[in-house]
Design brief:
This protein has helices at 5-17, 32-42, 46-74, 79-97, 110-118, 126-143, 146-149, 153-181, 185-195, 204-216, 224-233, 235-238, 242-245, 273-276; strands spanning 23-24, 27-28. It contains 14 helices and 2 strands. It has one domain. By secondary structure, it is mostly helical. The protein is globular, with a radius of gyration of 19 Å.
């Protein structure tokens, strides 16, 4: 995992919060996720503990399986690696869904969470888009051997992988907005340390604002719109749009996407560098 972008964003973020002894909340910094979940259980805040587990453990593990597909497509192009690449995508989708039963017809993990939060936004089709993208990656690159036939296939797969991870951030943003709107300060703190690492490569200003006003100070409902505007300002960097997130039904806060890449002295870049960073 040491070479994986998402893992490193979180790892470096929590290292920045650690003490000089590399400890975070009395745990080795590399176990920051366990420390956060354990704290909530110790405080008998079960709902927070379960949601933290779904973010800090499940969500990040899904990105790990997505990242592994690049290795199988680039470094080890064999029949076995094609099977392992397809398996990694299957595992990512299984972790997104969880266990399906009568109590949880949409599974008990992120698929279900995404279906629940989408009801509060005017438009959101994350699950549909996510399944379509993962299915495309599985079929095109591993079952149909794009990785075998084209030595540069991994570059296009990396763009697709980044798009999938971008889609995965949408329900996290939606939950954050919902908790901000409902003044759920403990959940606001949880989602601040969930979203802030992803902002490390986008906007230090927005990252610092979230941390200062939700972690170092107590969240004030009067700052709700400021929080949301800071989130909206990094949508493009995160690879999502205002339409992807949708409008929160309880209030109207205008959202405008950053402009598309413009031609520079007659030159239009073939690939948006934000997609392959």
């Amino acid at each position: 995992m040491i070479n994986e972008r998402t893992y490193n964003l979180y790892r470096h973020f929590f290292h920045s919060l650690a003490g000089p002894d590399s400890m975070f909340d009395d745990e080795n910094i590399d176990y920051y996720a366990d420390a956060i979940v354990k704290d909530f259980f110790d405080l008998n805040q079960i709902d927070l503990a379960v949601e933290a587990m779904k973010i800090m453990h499940i969500w990040i593990t899904i990105t790990h399986y997505l990242e592994k597909t690049i290795f199988f497509c680039k470094e080890s192009v064999t029949e076995e690696s094609m099977m392992l690449g397809a398996f990694s995508l299957d595992t990512a989708l299984a972790l997104w869904t969880g266990t399906i039963n009568e109590s949880h017809p949409f599974g008990n993990l992120w698929y279900e969470m995404t279906e629940k939060i989408r009801e509060k936004f005017e438009r959101s089709v994350v699950n549909r888009d996510l399944i379509k993208l993962i299915s495309k990656a599985r079929a095109d690159y591993f079952l149909n051997n794009h990785c075998v036939d084209d030595q540069d296939a991994w570059l296009r797969l990396r763009v697709l992988k980044n798009e999938i991870i971008s889609k995965m951030t949408i329900p996290m943003i939606q939950y954050f907005i919902d908790y901000l709107a409902n003044n759920s300060s403990d959940f606001v703190k949880l989602y601040t340390v969930t979203i802030a690492p992803l902002l490390s490569g986008c906007s230090q200003t927005s990252k610092d604002f979230l941390m200062q006003n939700a972690i170092f100070e107590e969240y004030d409902l009067g700052m709700r719109d400021d929080f949301i505007r800071h989130l909206q300002s990094v949508y493009t960097c995160l690879g999502i749009t205002c339409e992807d997130v949708g409008n929160y039904k309880s209030f109207d806060l205008k959202c405008t996407d950053e402009p598309e890449i413009q031609e520079m002295v007659g030159f239009l870049p073939y690939v948006d560098v934000r997609e392959v960073s």
